[in-house]
Amino acid sequence: MSTNATLGVDLGGTHIRLGVVDLDGVVRHEHRGASPSHSVAELIDAVGHASAELRAAAATEDLTVTAIGAGVAALVDDDGVARYAPNVPALVDTPLRDDIARATGLPAIVDNDANVAAWGELAHGAMRGMRHALLLTLGTGIGGGIVLDGRVYRGAHGFGAEVGHWQFDPHGRVCACGEAGHWEAWGSGTALGVLAREVVARGDAPSVLAAAGGDPAAVSGEHVSAAALGGADDALAILDTFADFVAIGFAGLANILDPEAIVISGGLVNIGDVLVSRIRDRFPLHLEGRAYRPEIPILAAQLGDQSGVIGAAVLARQVAAAS
């Protein structure tokens, strides 16, 4: 007897991943490749070809693919149009949902990548059973997925949960988007590198400078991580400061949304407990009435680098059910 499955697509600036995902959230067949991000036509063509290969592979296991979902680091409106994607410059006012549907012959749905990751964690990961939760992705930038009453919140136009772009300090560092003082300019992986270069310039982080080969301009968050994991006090001091910037943002969102838990994913989580424990320690210090409210746990996401594919496939189940 044939079993239904859906296709999930993770569209990034450097990679493209597709997977056939069954109803248990298991990736049964997968395709990974470089993203032809300079041309929308090439990108859609790559999705179409990989989709056909994966559907053929799924058919050998009697799996029927009923719909396709995609996550992309972009502002995606309710019609599946990618209005703006800072890391995929070709995706400006691109009718991505309709293009993918035409290329694959499948009902399609498209959303922001952090929203998609939240769908995955809600169905098959760390948010299972929760009604109100936050997913925060800490990487090059900061992304967010807000779960309200068991569903991912998208806002009036589909652009909700751009949590990295609330103004943390109106006189602070300029964010990659061009605005001053956004939280992303203080609490992202990029921001960790900026902070480290500032400390190195004062002569206060010799181990981090050594990890960067002695070149102050080359210092990045990865060098802080390497030195911190080696136990260097100067690198750990940088993480202390950085963790407080992250925790302030977490607490601000928690004060507004009162989640059951905050789930974190993204490249910075790979630093491990040396960073995450510092965020956990500082987070309650910034909460309103912290002595009078239930604990809000900070949890690691469970789906790893498959979160985009699995989450997009979960999202696709919505259009499959409606077809």
Which labels suit this protein?
alpha/beta; 38% helix; 21% strand; 323 residues; five-stranded mixed β-sheet; single chain; 12 strands
Describe, in short, the structure shown.
The protein is an alpha/beta fold and 323 residues long.
Commentary on this structure:
The protein is α/β, with parallel strands linked by helices. 38% of the residues lie in helices and 21% in strands. The protein has helices spanning 40-59, 96-104, 113-124, 184-187, 189-201, 206-211, 221-229, 233-257, 273-282, 307-322, and strands spanning 3-11, 15-21, 27-34, 63-72, 75-76, 82-84, 108-112, 133-138, 142-148, 151-152, 261-265, 298-300. A five-stranded mixed β-sheet has the order 3-2-1-4-7. Strands 10-9-8-11-12 form a five-stranded mixed β-sheet, with helices on both faces. Strand 1 and strand 2 (15-21) form a beta hairpin.
